[in-house]
Amino acid sequence: MSERAETVYDAAGSTLIVRIRGEVDHHTAAEIRTGIDRELFQRRPKRMTMDLSRVSFMDSSGLGLIMGRFSVMRELGGEMTVSDPSPETLSILTLAGMERLVKIEYTREPPARSKPTPAGTKPSPDGTPSGKGRTRRKCKPSA
Fold it and tell me: Which of 88, 95, 114, 132 is the 20 to 30 A CA-CA neighbour of 66?
């Protein structure tokens, strides 16, 4: 079962700040989307910032949520940014290429990105795959 997502709305001038906390999945995305759209159409901000710093999980429904709100803001003549994505969220945003569509901002130090390693391996101190799954073979000189 999904952790209940919480959404808080703040205004700073003509900017709507949407702070999301918890899990953004199929079950919670619809509720978040409805709330954000209500705020957008009531306030008509010039800019919306979606703060994802406290999102603990996001699946493709979260990507759809972001893309849909980006489209709504564009229709309203405004712009949208994502701020401070958590490491978990940043990884799915990056895999989806979301930074090509929506600007990602950091108000604090960006999370460190780790190098992906093949399944069943652990990175060594120098960042190269090692351990289980890696095979070393000695070759015998051919005669």
Answer: 114
The helix/strand/coil state of 41 is helix
* Segments forming the whole domain that contains residue 14: 6-111
Following DSSP, what letter does each residue of 75-134 receive, concatenated? HTT-EEEEES--HHHHHHHHHTTGGGTSEEE-SSPPPPPPPP--TT-EE-TTS-EESTT-
What pLDDT does residue 121 have?
43
Kindly compute the dihedral angle of the four CA atoms of residues 105, 106, 107, 113, in this order, to the nearest 10 degrees: 170
Task: Give the other-Cβ count within 10 Å of 135's Cβ.
Answer: 4
Number of folded domains in the chain?
1
Task: Classify residue 143: in a domain, yes or no.
Answer: no
At 19, which CATH number? 3.30.750.24
Q: Would you mind telling me the total number of residues written for the chain in this entry?
A: 143
- Tell me the two tokens of residue 41: 């159409």
Confirm whether 133 is domain-assigned: no
Give the pLDDT confidence score for residue 111 in this predicted structure: 59
Q: Is 137 strand, coil or helix? A: coil
pTM: 0.73
User: Does residue 13 belong to any structural domain of this protein?
Assistant: yes
